[in-house]
Design brief:
63% of the residues lie in helices and 8% in strands. By secondary structure, it is of the alpha+beta class.
């Protein structure tokens, strides 16, 4: 692979204008496709094959208004007045009449018909039904509904509009998200000591992100793409796009500082560092594509979207970046005498000055520190990570609702008012589809009996009048639970109805199934929870196999896998502590604490796996190369960690700040995902890779690089470090991947 990438880098360098024109054409083509076909984001959650989805699809045949989405209008009278007062009642009547004529409205259920007026008479709740899903609502439909409330407001009532039709909105990048880019530029400038070099990774990352996001939005016109998928693709594309370019550029500048010809250096940088980038990117892509095994459409699209963005970042790093090297020429070389140039000097000098220069590197100092008492470091590090992971035992999963929307939004105000005035269950009523075995009046009696039977279940606050279709014998019954959509009591009620379905059918003659937005959300969370362990097993197995192939060692893959699991567990614990227990919730502006977003654990595992393997490859490959060259296990760990530390530190900081900048968003889905990724990267890079890895390898010694001979013969040689580039017509000596880190700065 290294030889092929070497030739690719040389070709891109020679034909730099053609490569640059090709990438600009691809970017322009993606943008033009977006302009022509447009894009539409869809935040609807569906789960094909589940009971709730089957019932929803069946219900749509007879009750399209019940199967579609709905909105709520809450009317609140001033203190000392009632909604039944003549002026208030007239205002409500005019508002509901206007709502009935609003775009796409199928039915309006007034408060007196639904029985949703509080005992004190101050608050009333009306429901507006649409016969389409939330994603099928036209632009301006909800704005038109909000306009209808003017009559009630003029009558002196306080009115808010919310409900399931609103959802959590769509994330739009703000200045705070762009702050991560500014910090990344600062880190790159400090690392390289050159604005030209610092700007190059940002330029290539923007080309990759622009191509990926424009293409994704264009595809969204025909494929369901959520705003969360777009946000994840943006975060990952920006983070890995900068990091991958950082690794290749660091190698290139090291070689230039050592006097290598720029063209040859570009080829060898892509052949060595590019090999590791391709491997690291492949692990991220495989893990993200693995989200397909969960069999939930929105999660599949999320994984494929993010994987496509990462793949583009890899292609940019091994093609566009060497083309830019060609345009920059020797100007990318560090100035003679600068710190960057001194760091690029070979670390094999025998003089005291050379030794002093090497030992003064902070990375080597840290490596010597953690390898001095390796057992103590390992015990302390593992204990700290396990302590951080303790809250993960209380992990609860659910999909977000309007209760997690930002304070001050219409849907959040409506949610809070309904919960306070009527009870939290009115924010997420269940829909029970009753299918009588006989249509007509006999079927109507059966469905009425089902409603009576449901009223007897514990945890039920209210059962609505069945909506009956005499031709089919089906009825829809609204059941209001005692708890809110995310409460455990609501899930217990859904389970109770399903467990009691056979008994209800035996008593009434009608089959029952539970559906509605709340039930679908519960089914999505259940499937994700059930998929977590199998997915973790796949990721762990993949981790072992890949690292076994790369490092040809038994200890390194096991150590890397255990470290990855510790990072994931610590990240889960931090997420639970903040978003479920409420620690630092005010500092991070968490709108409401409660269950964690149900697909966060799987997304975190997929993404963090790829990033952890990224750092593992760049760190341990340096140690392995030193071991092969010198045969001194302890020195190999220190020297390898010293070479790697600067670039791995810069890469981790860039990823951390990029992810952390998205924590500022008000999106209830993106915020915890961004927090978990930022925390996970920080822990994995600095605690696991930079601390535990050197300590464990120093403790194991020569055994870290042992592999049975039979297995050694069977495994293919991937040549991630570009050792084969030593052969052939190249005149300049090719240094291993470890030297990438020496040239950073």
């Amino acid at each position: 692979m290294a030889t092929w990438l070497y030739r690719l880098g040389l070709g891109a360098y020679r034909r730099r204008r053609l490569v640059l024109a090709a990438w600009l054409a691809v970017l322009a083509g993606a943008v033009c496709a977006l302009v022509v076909v447009g894009g539409r984001l869809d935040n609807e959650f569906t789960i094909p094959g589940s009971e709730s989805q089957r019932a929803q699809d069946t219900m749509a045949e007879d009750f399209p208004a019940a199967a579609g989405t709905s909105a709520q209008i809450v009317f609140t009278a001033p203190e000392g007045r009632k909604v039944s007062d003549p002026q208030a009642a007239q205002g409500i009547q005019r508002t509901l009449a206007a709502a009935q004529d609003a775009p796409q409205v199928a039915a309006v259920i007034p408060p007196d018909r639904a029985g949703t007026v509080t005992p004190d008479g101050r608050t009333a709740l009306a429901q507006v039904n649409y016969d389409v899903s939330r994603s099928a609502l036209d632009d301006g439909t909800l704005d038109a509904l909000e306009e209808t409330t003017r009559a009630a407001e003029e009558a002196g009532l306080e009115v808010s509009v919310g409900g399931q039709a609103y959802g959590n909105g769509v994330l739009t990048p703000s200045v705070l998200e762009l702050l991560g880019v500014v910090v990344a530029l600062a880190v790159l400038a400090i690392t390289f000591g050159s604005l030209l070099a610092a700007g190059m990774p940002l330029l290539t990352a923007f080309v990759g992100i622009g191509t990926g996001l424009a293409g994704l939005l264009a595809v969204s016109s025909g494929v369901t793409v959520s705003s969360t998928a777009l946000s994840l693709a943006l975060m990952l594309g920006l983070a890995v796009g900068i990091d991958y370019a950082l690794f290749v550029l660091s190698r290139h500048r090291t070689q230039l500082a050592q006097g290598m010809d720029p063209r040859e250096s570009a080829g060898r940088a892509v052949g060595t560092a590019g090999s590791a980038v391709v491997f690291a990117g492949t692990t991220v892509v495989i893990a993200l594509v693995g989200l397909m095994v969960v069999r939930i459409p929105f999660l599949t699209v999320m994984g494929l979207s993010a994987a496509a963005t990462v793949l583009i970042a890899v292609l940019v790093a091994v093609t566009l970046l060497p083309a830019l090297f060609g345009l920059a020429g020797a100007r990318l070389a560090p100035r003679p005498g600068s710190r960057a140039a001194r760091r690029a000097e070979p670390a094999s000098g025998d003089s005291e000055d050379a030794e002093e220069s090497r030992t003064s590197v902070m990375g080597r100092r840290w490596a010597r520190l953690v390898t001095r008492r390796p057992l103590l470091v390992v015990l302390a590090g593992v204990a700290a990570l396990l302590t951080l992971a303790v809250p993960a035992a209380d992990l609860r999963l659910a999909l977000p609702d309007n209760g997690t929307a930002a304070h001050g939004t219409s849907q959040r105000e409506t949610y809070d008012t309904v919960a306070e005035a009527f009870g939290p269950g009115f924010n997420g009523p269940l829909l029970v589809l009753a299918e009588a075995d006989t249509p007509g009046q006999a079927g109507q009696r059966q469905t009425a009996a089902v409603a009576g039977r449901l009223q007897q279940l514990p945890g039920v606050v209210k059962v609505g009048q069945p909506q009956y279709a005499p031709e089919s014998g089906r009825a829809v019954i609204q059941v209001v639970p005692k708890g809110g959509p995310q409460d455990e009591s609501t899930q217990d009620l859904v389970d109770a109805i399903r467990d009691d379905a056979a008994t209800i059918e035996g008593e009434t003659g009608a089959a029952v199934s539970v559906t509605g937005t709340t039930a679908i959300g519960i089914d999505v969370s259940d499937r994700l929870s059930a998929s977590l362990l199998p997915f973790a097993a796949v990721v762990v197995g993949l981790c072992l196999v890949l690292l076994l192939l790369v490092f040809r060692s038994l200890v390194v893959p096991v150590k890397a896998t255990v470290g990855f699991l510790l990072s994931v567990a610590a990240s889960f614990g931090a997420v639970v502590a903040v978003f479920q227990w409420g620690w630092l919730a005010d500092v991070l502006d968490v709108a409401r604490t409660g269950p964690v977003v149900s697909f966060l654990p799987i997304v975190l595992m997929a993404v963090l796996f790829g990033l952890a393997m990224d750092y593992e490859v760049f760190l341990v490959s340096g140690m392995r190369e030193e071991w092969v060259r010198t045969g001194r296990a302890q020195d190999a760990v220190v020297e390898g960690a010293g070479h790697a530390s600067r670039v791995v530190t810069a890469a981790a900081l860039i990823m951390f700040f990029v992810f952390a900048s998205f924590v500022a968003t008000e999106d209830a889905i993106v915020k915890p995902i961004a927090f978990s990724l930022a925390f996970g990267v920080l822990v994995d890079a600095f605690v696991v890779r930079m601390t535990l890895v050197p300590a464990v390898l120093a403790m194991v010694g020569r055994g870290a690089w042992w592999l049975p001979r039979g297995l050694d013969r069977l495994l293919p040689d991937l040549d991630i470090e570009g050792a084969r580039l030593h052969d052939g017509p190249h005149q300049e000596p090719v240094r291993p991947l470890t030297e990438i880190k020496a040239g950073s700065g």
